[in-house]
Amino acid sequence: MFNAALLPRLAGRLLGLGALLAAGTAGAVTAPMLVVDVDSGKVIYSQGATDPWFPASITKLMTTYVALDMVRQGRASMDQLLTISEAAAAEPPSKMGFKPGTQLTLDNALKIIMVKSANDVAWAIGENLGGSIDGFAAQMNETAQRLGMRDSRWTNPNGLPDPRQWTSARDMAVLGRALLRDFPENRDLFSISAIQFGRAVMPNHNGLLGRYAGVDGMKTGFICSGGFNVVASANRNGRRILTVVMGQASARERDLKAADLFDYGFGQSSFSFGGQTLAELPTSPIATPPDMRPYICDKRRPMPTDADSAALTASAAAAGGNADNANAQLMAAGAPPSSALAFATMNSAALRNRALPPRAPLQPVLVWTGRDPAESAIAATDEAAPAKPVAARPAARVKVAKPVPQRPAPSRSIAATGATVPQPKLLARHKGAAPAAASAFASTGPSTAVIAEPKGHKAAAKPAAKHDAKQDSKPAAKPAPKAETKPAAKPTVKSARKKDD
Q1: CA torsion sign, 141 to 146 to 147 to 150?
Q2: Sign of CA dihedral 395, 397, 399, 402
Q3: Burial of residue 220 (number of CB atoms within 10 Å: 0-12, 13-18, 19+)
Q4: Across the strands, what pairs with 43?
Q5: Would residue 135 count as lying in a domain?
Q6: Domain encompassing residue 406
Q7: Could you tell me which residues are annotated as the binding site for substrate?
Q8: Which of 61, 198, 235, 424 lies 20 to 30 angstroms, CA to CA, from 150?
Q9: Highest-confidence range of 139-148, 287-296, 376-385, 483-492, by mean pLDDT?
Q10: How far is the C-alpha of 211 from the C-alpha of 358, rounded, in Å?
Q11: Where are the beta strands (DSSP E) in 353-404?
Q12: CA distance 253 to 275
């Protein structure tokens, strides 16, 4: 009969073999892995869970916790502006590339570091909220101690290489649980599939989002010395599991192993994985983290990136078939059937071509610089580009072309000035008009005739406009009739064109 208590030890040996095959060197280096039930904190599976390890960008989970905690305490706000300093702008990629002096809200900054993993923005969060990077690192360490993260040491907010900064799989599981427990209103931060800045859409580096059913966060990370890391959460049927995978040779292997661990975790009942909690995991005998650079970043190969997961496009059916082959091998070794432990032989021929399903369509979340999108220089540029054809405003030109001189207003202005119009001259223009209209003009006088005339005859407007122009050209003319004549309309057209250009 199979002894379940031997499963972690057996799996650890197989995983150690997998790490040995991947690294091609001493088997003393075992990549840490951990599966924990979020609600109870009980450990479902662990391997090297308390070994010190370089965190890379999963550090930004710690940065986010400190920032959200400051907001909760009233020491910061999500809409406060952070300024990009020269030091922040000088941080190496992954980055947004903001110029020094650029400002953005804390809310947008947190979205950017969770999706794009921008080191310049994380640095700005540390400087602005902590007063300095050292000040913010002190807050990170204080918070870690309060949460029970006993294996962690923090020196910067973005996770770029620093031999003094490390953590453990156990501590990252403690942190992940704390984020989900203490800030339920901010859980969406960890599940954003992409951000959109201006016209650029940047997908999340987390290759499990949109590919593995139930995964809803949290963060990936990569540096040569630490390999490819991920802290991921998944929810199925109301049960939430947290998985930590560290030290993998590629984003693809990291994502596949995390998926297998989720399979294993969801396959276990809440009563079958014992009573060991995260707090009860034994301290590691290893004093300092191993340097994985010789194994991860081989100079003879291209530099790996955390975007490798974008290449995972194979069908789920193919992945399932290969998982069955792995189960057969594990059963032969005495382990129960489960695709969750297939990662032990990741480098075998049967599993070399495994992949996750294609990614679900991205749903980008808008981010911007400044306090709101209208203040963002990029947003303003992007909004102006499509609006350029509209700026020509054909409707405005039609307005200028409207028959303004035909309106009765110029005639009233003539009456107001008291100008006399020679009746024979105007009557001569009404040869085609009805006799009644002509006699009405003669009996009522010039002012009444000019007002009544456009109703019965449109041609009557022309003489009025012509006469207005003459009157307006005189020094004694008032400004009102000048603004309403045709000659006054031409400068309007010219100024409108100048503005459109």
Answers
A1: positive
A2: negative
A3: buried
A4: 36
A5: yes
A6: 392-500
A7: 219
A8: 235
A9: 139-148
A10: 6
A11: 364-367
A12: 30
Task: Return the structure tokens found at 392.
Answer: 């020509």
Contact criterion met (CB below 8 Å) for 158 and 131: no
8 A C-beta contact, residue 66 and residue 73:
no
Q: Is-contact 208 232, C-beta < 8 A? A: yes
Residues 6+ apart with CB under 8 A from 63: 113, 122, 125, 126, 136, 140, 157, 158
3-state DSSP: the chain helix, strand, coil percent, rounded to 5? 50, 15, 35
Together in a domain, 323 and 416: no
* Lowest-confidence region among 107-111, 364-368, 492-496: 492-496
Same domain, yes or no, for 365 and 416?
A: no
More confident residue, 15 or 181: 181
**Is 57 a catalytic site residue?**
yes
Angle between helices 461-473 and 486-500 (to 10 degrees): 80
Same domain, yes or no, for 352 and 414?
Answer: no
- Inter-residue contact 222 to 232 (CB < 8 Å): no
Assigned token pair, 395: 């409707």
Binding residues: 219
Task: Tell me the whole-structure pTM to 2 decimals.
Answer: 0.66
Is residue 46 part of the annotated active site? The answer reads no
- Of the residues 117, 191, 233, 376, only one is catalytic, namely 117
Q: Which two tokens stand for residue 460?
A: 């009557």
Residue 424 shares a structural domain with residue 280: no
- Using N-to-C axis directions, what is the helix angle for 446-456 and 461-473, rounded to 10°? 140
Within 24-118, residue ranges assigned H as helices are 59-72, 86-89, 106-115
Pairwise CA distance, residues 139 & 129, whole Å: 10
114 in Cβ contact with 59 (< 8 Å): no
CB atoms within 10 A of CB 25: 11
Q: Which residues pair with 167 in a beta bridge?
A: 53
45 in a structural domain: yes
Are the CB atoms for 192 and 219 separated by under 8 Å?
no
Structure tokens at 396: 């405005």
